[in-house]
Amino acid sequence: MKNAISEYIEFPEKEKIKLWKEATFIFDTNIFLRLYGLTKEAREAFFNAVDKINDRIWMPHQVAEEFMKNRIKVILDNQKNYDNLCEETNNYIKKLSDVFNLSIDDEECKKHKKLLQDWIEQHRKTNLSVKDSSKDELLNKILILFNNKTGKPFTVDELTEIETEGAERYKKQIPPGYKDTNKKDTDKVNNMFGDLILWKQILSFSSQNKKNIIFITNDKKEDWWNIVQGKTIGPRVELKKEFKNLTEKIFHMYTLDNFLKFSTENIDEKILEEVKHEPVNYF
Asked: What integer best gives the mean pLDDT of the chain?
């Protein structure tokens, strides 16, 4: 009976550990884009964790394309966040002076303003990973890590076939990707079928290489996760079943915080809280 309904059964801890030691790890685009907004300590924790499984990582072409297409926007957005904080500091000091009937040039106001501005600039200096997109050390790290570990793109005909299938799948709410039907981008990289294209590339890789897969994503939507009464149980049952039927292998998923927690002993709780924070919807 267990084999007949295996997609419904949660992995016991012993099997998770065994899978962790054998599986190929695949990271969603949102993980790589999220790195640009993390602190230096959190980024280092991620790369240290990946180093431990360096011989068992692979990047689908869909992830590589999405990452490169959206990278500069994310870099600019992160830079803008610091500029906006500086502007908010000025607004805060103005409000402070109004509430307490103080002059903007009051020593207390100037003291608070300098304290905030110094903290923001120090944080920017320490944690802003890229100040110039042409000098992107984070990109260089990723390129080196996944050198000769990145898949090939689907052909135009294959993509057309996937989109045709996707239209039918989405009508029936067959995961993944049906929650992205509001995406109107006609770009083949960022359109509503991006998750399905990614899924098909994962299936193809596993089938060809006979590999179990652990997928790391910060996508919290129900078309990836089995969510019951607000609690995330694990990957969608349909995904596990389709994966097993087509590849005869195992598919499992983790969010970024759980990936770091599972891979790193005594990891700082502050890092876990940071990466658990709801990421910006980059695309």
From this structure: 89
